[in-house]
Amino acid sequence: MAHAPHKYLHAFVAEATEQLEQLASELVRIEQEVPGGALWDSIFRRVHSVKGSAATIGLSGVVAIAHAAETLIGKLKAQQAKPERTHVDLLLQATDELVQEVQHASGTAHAPRADEGAPLALAARLAEASRVLPDLPAPLPAPRIVGQKPVADPGTPRLDVAFSLSKACQAPGARSLIVQRKLKGLGVLLEMDPQPAALMQKKGGVRVTALLATTRPPDEVRAAFDGIPEVEEVEVSAAPVANAPEPAPQAAEEAGAIRAVPDTAATEETRTDATVRVRAQALDQLLDQAAEVLHGIARLREAVRTLPENAATQFEAEIDRLRRTARDLHGRVMNARLTPFSSLTERLPRAIRDLAHRLGKEVELEVQGGAVELDRTVIEALADPLTHLVRNAVDHGLETSAQRISMGKSVRGLLVLSARRERDKVLVEVSDDGAGFDGERLRQRAIDMGVLSPDKLPDVTEQQSYELAFLPGLSTRDEATELSGRGVGLDAVKAAVERLGGKIGLRSAPGKGSRFTLELPLSVSMANLLLVQVGGELYGLPMTRIVATTEYDLSARGGEGFEARSLAVMGQLVRAYSLAKLFGLPSLAPPGPRPFAVLEVDGITFALSVDRLVGQEEAVLKPLFPPIDRIKGLAGTTVLGNGRPLLVLDPRGLHELAEASQRLRGAA
User: Fold this and answer.
1) Which residues pair with 567 in a beta bridge?
2) 654 HSE (CA, 13 A, CB side)
3) CATH code for residues 9-132
């Protein structure tokens, strides 16, 4: 019979996943930088936090690995030297195994366990690595800082303490503050997570862990909780002692740890950086509700127009006020969904390290603008494209150490990821100081593929040659490897960025490197639309793809076939298609000049004829659901102010549909 999941499993999985992602990044840093006590302390604290939380819900595999890793980390810190690669490899393997254990516990693992004994086997390897290291005394603590308790003696036993606050608890901050004071009376409180101040604005149902240095037995510490209302599931157990990092207060502060907790309750109560975890699904639902309120207000505005003028004026003033409030609510929910760029970059150092080692290269990763925020939907959609650009830079762009030395470059290649905000957009750049793109080779590949005519070669600039790298199926590799050379990648990156309503550009200089620039919207939930009418139906075209609008009289050109030959737009000829014929609708446009919307996608400019240009509308977009999401040319839906649903069109899909239809007509 299957056991019900622990009530704190969801919170554990979210917290552990975040801690392990950051742990992997810090292990890569400790290998590349001159190690400092603060970084070692942070690494130890993350492993210890995962272990303590896993112990409370009975994940023995996680506890075994984390416990052995703690001991190894303590000994490595005591060496006061850069760790060997074998030790970092082992700790990264432990991180991977911990991630797998967490995924199996949450039911999100992609495959069943290959070996049930893997966690214990890995714990044994970690213990053996610790055993062969010499026992060195831990660094002495720095002088005492005024207002803090003395650092505990390294020989004092440590106890892992964990307790839960019941869901009915209305003041978890006050309850945890009582526990904090009791623990301080029993020894030196080294850690407490979360702190009482962070719980002041929360409700109950919270799990708290602590690390206590004390000579008191565990039963006596456990007994201190007796009589404290709304405190339950108290667990006290021995923590590892051997060479456990015990940082000086200022080092702990640099690492973000809370060590030697101050006595003053006022300090706790005046902190204002309290945060709370909210499920992404809850924010999505709240955003939908805010959008529905905006739609309701728009429908109300339409209804008010039917009232007498003297009554409508007063109603319209109130509706305007309500609309401003609703838009502010929608904006606040959108801000709550914003996620820092660093959430994308935290997992990259490990991937870059492993790839560089496989290719025999040395790579330094520099991240700038990690605090810049984008909508969660944009972050999720950007993960794969950004990973591909980074892998592409390490594999294609950066040279080996020997090659760089022969060219007078530094031994280690530099890869820079940066993000910066410009008005309502975010610019993300991926640049390297490697070999750059070979324009001549790209042009030749394009000719071989038949997408570039040899007689057009003199007209192709060097910059236009670099843009050829985005063509589907184009690769400059002679042979495909497991990493690249199959011509699948940059075209998919461009498509993913443009699906978000963004743009991607490439600059390169031979021998100096290359830079990809991604121009992205802060959010994909709001969009400015050009409303067009075709066959009595209204549709929306994203303004980000509209180059211009114009009029042409097709009757003077011998009638309108599916393709209206070409139109002259801003000095260039572009293909034109009938949106009515594309959708199989009757055109209701009167004889004479007909409006056209000129669009640009994938570097191609084309025009769509419509019956009427209706105007612009700022809309809240909603995704399509199966099976409608499979229809080419549709991007989403929205609701107009009068309550009328509106289909939002996808310019890329429309162009592909038009080209396919034209080929079929030509074949017939």
Assistant:
1) 574
2) 31
3) 1.20.120.160
Chain segment 233-253, per-residue pLDDT in tens: 889 988 864 444 443 333 333
First to last CA, the chain: 64
DSSP 192-248: EES-GGGGTT--S-EEEEEEEE-SS-HHHHHHTTTT-TTEEEEEEEEPP-TT-----
The Cα–Cα gap between 657 and 648 comes to 16
- The Cα–Cα gap between 433 and 328 comes to 44
Three-state SS at 110: coil
CATH (residue range 341-521): 3.30.565.10
Fold classification of 526-667 (topology level): SH3 type barrels. (2.30.30)
Check: CB of residue 523 under 8 Å from CB of residue 334: yes
Residue 364 CB neighbour total at 10 angstroms: 16
DSSP secondary-structure letter at 622?
A: B
Check whether domain 158-240 has CATH 3.30.70.1110, yes or no: yes
Q: What own/partner pairs with CB < 8 Å and gap ≥ 24 does 78-84 have? A: 78/135, 78/136, 78/137, 78/138, 78/139, 78/243, 79/133, 79/136, 80/35, 80/139, 81/35, 82/30, 82/31, 82/34, 82/35, 83/30, 83/31, 83/35
Same fold, 158-240 and 341-521: no
Domain boundaries, the chain: 9-132, 158-240, 280-337, 341-521, 526-667
The band of 545, judged by pLDDT with boundaries at 50, 70 and 90, is: confident
* Cis bond upstream, residue 627 (ω within 30): yes
CA dist 416 and 393 (Å) reads 10
Strand 594-601 and strand 572-578: the pairing is unpaired
Q: pTM score > 0.85 for this model? A: no
Tokens standing for residue 14: 């979210």
Query: Are the C-beta atoms of 446 and 464 separated by less than 8 Å?
Result: no
For residues 588-596, average pLDDT = 85
